[in-house]
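Suppose a classmate hands you a notebook page containing two proteins, each written out with its sequence and a corresponding row of structure tokens. How would you begin to make sense of it? This section walks through that situation. The first entry is reproduced here exactly as it would appear on such a page.
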Amino acid sequence: MTDPESTTDAPRTSNVRPASPAEAADVRAMHAANRSAWDEAAERYEGWYDEAVELIRGGGSNLFPVEHDLIGDLHGRCRRAIHLQCAGGRDTLSLWNLGADEVIGVDISTRMLDLAARLTAATGAPARWVEADVLDAPHELDGTADLVYTGRGAIIWLQDLDAWAAVLRRLLSPMGRLVIFDGHPAEWLFDADEDGRWVATDYDYFGGPEASKGWAPEYIDRLSLAEDDQSWKFARAWTLGEIVTALLGAGLRLERVAEHPVDWWAGHRDIRPEDRGRVPLSFSVVATRGE
């Protein structure tokens, strides 16, 4: 999946291009570029800080209803929840409000984790923040998570699904659960016409990694840094088949794979209400470690 701005019928600009063969071959370099881009994007999350403090202090949750259904009540059944690619920590602390005794967020962005630490200090949450590429999640956490959660808009930024899936499995406790809720890769094949009806785009479902600058305003909104001055970032069009195959290849036991018409980033607000349920916009997976 790519930056949402590049998935419409609009002409491609010099700030959106396929990754070069050399770039596509270097997973770590692409992840490092994404670190810089997300440090810049943290500006937008910092604007939500006061709102996030109020939400968490009030016992609220930033998770979607479908995520609540997947995760359930964690009181008395989750000593530790680990949230991978946790960004500014609002979703992570929502897991605490759902009943996790302790939450740990792992993210590649220093600036995002600084924001998460501020949120922890303001709310008194039992949270720990780990700065690391998700592929390098610390081994001290292996086998300790009663819940491993990865949420909206995370998978597109990964460039090695097999390594990612192996991390998910090693973090889970013997009785732990993995919950994934993320954007459906097929959603980029469709957009709205002037009447709010679904139409096909020129998006390539099998296109591989793409480099871009700038963000869709529905996704991050405009930053103070001009688009041309922003860092290149790399997103990947992983198919649903590739995701499921990676999870199975890591030895995870899949209990449920579901598709949802839930617009996870509000990128399809212009679709007519009567047409909203026709296209899969998100998907979910519930799994256990397997033996």
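The notebook's second entry, a different protein, reads as follows.
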Amino acid sequence: MGYELSGNTLERDIPALLPLEAPAVDGDRHPALGVIADWARNYLCCPHAELGRNGPVCPFVPGALQKQLLFATVYEDPGIDVDDIKTILLREMERFIKLDPVSGNEAQFKSLMVMFPQLSVDDLDMIEVAQAELQKHFVPNGLMVGEFHSGPPQKGGLWNSAFRPLYSPVPMLVIRHMVPTDLLFLKDSAQLFREYVQIYGNAVPERFRAQFEEAAERFGMTTNPDENAPQAAPRIIDALDAAGLTYRVHCHDNYPLPIRVPKDFADALGYAVGRITKTLFLKSRDDARYYLVICSMDKRVDLRGLAAKLGTGRLELAPLADLQRLVGYPPTSVTPIAVAGIPVFMDETLFQFPTVLTGSGVPRVEIEIAPADLRASCAAQILAMA
């Protein structure tokens, strides 16, 4: 099951990926999946005396299990080494991004557990070595990769440094979307801290403001501690201000009720859910052209019909590496604002609303702007999308 490895070359199909608690079909469910499902329910979803705070060990897991957004896959190839693990994780990163949901608040619950049950106790350090080297690839994409094994890893908890929370009965690396509190995992590396600031700007949880400022001073970076400053990617704010456009910044965490899905955000604003947009970054398979497409979050785009209208070949979501290189925003916070050199198309139905919400380049923060101003900010062409 999994890849056969020859050096660092992946020679077989990617192994199956299923929601963690999906039922077995014809006995194809790997035993490790059952072990980890029990561990998730009975460890991650539960309080722990040494945790240092109330609530479950991982507050995201109960919601992820309920929504069936906790995915897993198993690799058990003999002779696997650190380079093989890194190669596998980089490929799984691409698969993670394309898993539904690909955008919106619900995507924050999505996680992918990449398991290596064949690793012996003597080989567990490979999980930690691979994780440390992979972070530089994941963090710029708004993603985190975490290490888990039975050791457990030496990293202490955020609320009790003596507690070692990364225990797992099966060795694995876990992919998830970054959240603002990940500052505490990234503040000791100049490279990773700069990537964090590039994504979140000054949108830092107030209880961690002191650690943020200390890291910024240590690495010679200037920050803006003004609580009233716009909490969005600086390049977006600069572009909107330079164009003299009117806009408003909304931070989901400033609302009294939890915002987990687009409807929660629409309800908090008193808006129709159609006013919340998503921006798809698409690539033509035939000629490698790229497009940004803006439409309502609740609209399903017919990519075949859209390709015909654009006069191009088959369209698909562009790879994560292309998103990072050409757009530079995390997958859950894409917007066409301040993106150069990529044609933008905007669904004509968005113009029925006085304002719409678009990504800000920062997860859980969105820009409210008039549709005409959004169009002007990115020179979008209007298109009827079925």
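A careful reader of the second entry would note: The first helix runs from residue 31 to 44.
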